[in-house]
């Protein structure tokens, strides 16, 4: 996706304000689209953003210098902002990573596994801490 | 022209060899000409499971290296007309055969047989590459354990990379009671991760061990649940539409009584 097409799509939109402000940083011409599920042992390394139309299974790895979006279940290891960009985000329809890294922050899900939400979530660094939030609330 | 199917799993001990033996026997008892190929060179088991160990003269390495012709190495099963075994070598290792030789071998075998079923070794190295080289279909065996499912997932990825599309899944050693208690992965749990067609579910059954140790196959055991599962899988391979069997059924005195008075 080029910058141009993105600008065009916003121009045709009568209310550009509905585009979530937090995602403005996603506008980047260097994005790859992965149209399959990443299975154990498979990996994607990309200098830019990565969008995956499928799942990321346990044992799979996605490393990007930009943002990572998974249109499916994210169960493997992900690293956004791998070159140190602490503004990078990770978004997944079901965010269940083995380990989640943004910039130089490394996190893993809590051991108790009490929460198992069935809606998209977004991970990013806020005040120096990796936070997970419901994606809907970001749009609003 | 026959079909070449590889039975694989990644992880060891999940029941590749048992599955291969039972599917072979199952297909052969439907009147098909079946050849089982043991690709686990150096750790051969399939002959033992079938009770044919003492009949081996030549093996797969003898065939690929030109010491003998395929016909001389094939062993006819003692119980079932139509079932043949090409045994693995025990004194060599996986490097004794290469993928091209396996391809050639499979092409030869498919001229003679309706089904060629290859028993793949555990792992993802040379042995695995040999085993899948000549196959046009794959069956992935897994058990309801996190490690086995993880390896199955890896294997499915490798199969897809090798252009072996749409592998089918067999879940082995399934224990419905443990699943109901939440102590074991359910069929749905595994489906969510692996996301491939389910060919069948084989319940954990002592009878599998009993028959295997005697060099027999459980698929011929009319009474056991696992035998029924393998017979169903066989029919699905043959293209029939067989629903998954009810694994919840109790096999105790009580249910036997209920069956007798027709409550079931």
From TrEMBL, chain A:
Segments forming domain Septum formation inhibitor MinC C-terminal: 34-132
Keywords carried by this UniProt record: Cell cycle, Cell division, Septation
InterPro entries: CAP/MinC_C, MinC, MinC_C_sf, Septum_form_inhib_MinC_C
Gene3D superfamilies associated with the record: 2.160.20.70
Domain of life: Bacteria
UniProt xrefs under Pfam families: MinC_C
One GO term (biological process): regulation of cell septum assembly
Record text on subunit structure and interactions: Interacts with MinD and FtsZ.
Protein name: Septum site-determining protein MinC
Annotated source species: Desulforamulus putei DSM 12395
Phylogenetic placement of the source organism: Bacteria, Bacillati, Bacillota, Clostridia, Eubacteriales
From TrEMBL, chain B:
BP term (GO), one: negative regulation of cell division
Entry-linked InterPro entries: AAA_dom, MinD, MinD_FleN, P-loop_NTPase, ParA/MinD_ATPase
Domain AAA, first and last residues per copy: 3-160
Keywords noted in UniProt: ATP-binding, Cell cycle, Cell division, Nucleotide-binding, Septation
GO molecular function: ATP binding; ATP hydrolysis activity
GO cellular component terms, semicolon-separated: cytoplasmic side of plasma membrane; cytosol
Taxonomy, superkingdom: Bacteria
Binding site for ATP: 11-18
Family membership: Belongs to the ParA family. MinD subfamily.
Name of the protein: Septum site-determining protein MinD
């Amino acid at each position: 996706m080029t910058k141009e097409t993105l600008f065009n799509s916003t121009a045709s939109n009568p209310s550009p304000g509905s585009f979530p402000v937090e995602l403005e940083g996603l506008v980047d011409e260097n994005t790859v689209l992965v149209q399959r599920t990443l299975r154990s042992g498979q990996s994607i390394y990309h200098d830019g953003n990565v969008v995956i139309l499928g799942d990321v299974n346990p044992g799979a790895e996605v490393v990007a210098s930009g943002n990572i979006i998974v249109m499916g279940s994210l169960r493997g290891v992900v690293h956004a902002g791998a070159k140190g960009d602490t503004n990078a985000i990770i978004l997944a329809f079901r965010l269940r990573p083995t380990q989640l890294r943004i910039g130089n922050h490394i996190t893993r899900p809590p051991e108790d596994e009490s929460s198992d939400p069935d809606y998209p979530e977004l991970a990013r660094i806020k005040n120096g801490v990796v936070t997970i939030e419901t994606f809907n609330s970001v749009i609003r | 022209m026959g079909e070449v199917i590889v039975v694989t799993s990644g992880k060891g001990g999940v029941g590749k060899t048992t599955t291969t033996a039972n599917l072979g026997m199952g297909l052969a008892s439907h009147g098909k000409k079946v050849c089982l190929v043991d690709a686990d060179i150096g750790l051969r088991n399939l002959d033992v499971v079938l009770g044919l160990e003492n009949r081996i003269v030549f093996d797969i390495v003898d065939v690929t290296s030109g010491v003998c012709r395929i016909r001389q190495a094939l062993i006819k099963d003692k119980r079932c007309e139509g079932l043949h075994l090409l045994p693995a070598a025990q004194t060599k290792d996986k490097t004794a055969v290469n993928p091209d030789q396996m391809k050639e071998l499979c092409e030869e075998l498919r001229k003679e047989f309706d089904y060629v079923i290859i028993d793949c070794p555990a792992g993802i190295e040379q042995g695995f590459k040999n085993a899948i080289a000549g196959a046009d279909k794959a069956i992935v065996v897994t058990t309801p354990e996190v490690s086995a499912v993880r390896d199955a997932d890896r294997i499915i990825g490798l199969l897809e990379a090798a252009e072996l599309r749409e592998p089918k899944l067999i879940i082995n050693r399934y224990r419905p009671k443990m699943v109901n208690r939440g102590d074991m992965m359910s069929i749905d749990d595994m489906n969510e991760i692996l996301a491939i067609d389910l060919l069948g579910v084989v319940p954990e059954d002592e009878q599998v061990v009993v028959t295997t140790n005697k060099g027999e196959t459980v698929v011929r055991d009319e009474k056991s649940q696992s035998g029924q599962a393998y017979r169903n899988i066989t029919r699905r391979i043959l293209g029939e539409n067989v629903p998954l069997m009810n694994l919840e059924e109790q096999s105790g005195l009580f249910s036997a009584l209920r069956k007798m008075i027709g409550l079931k």
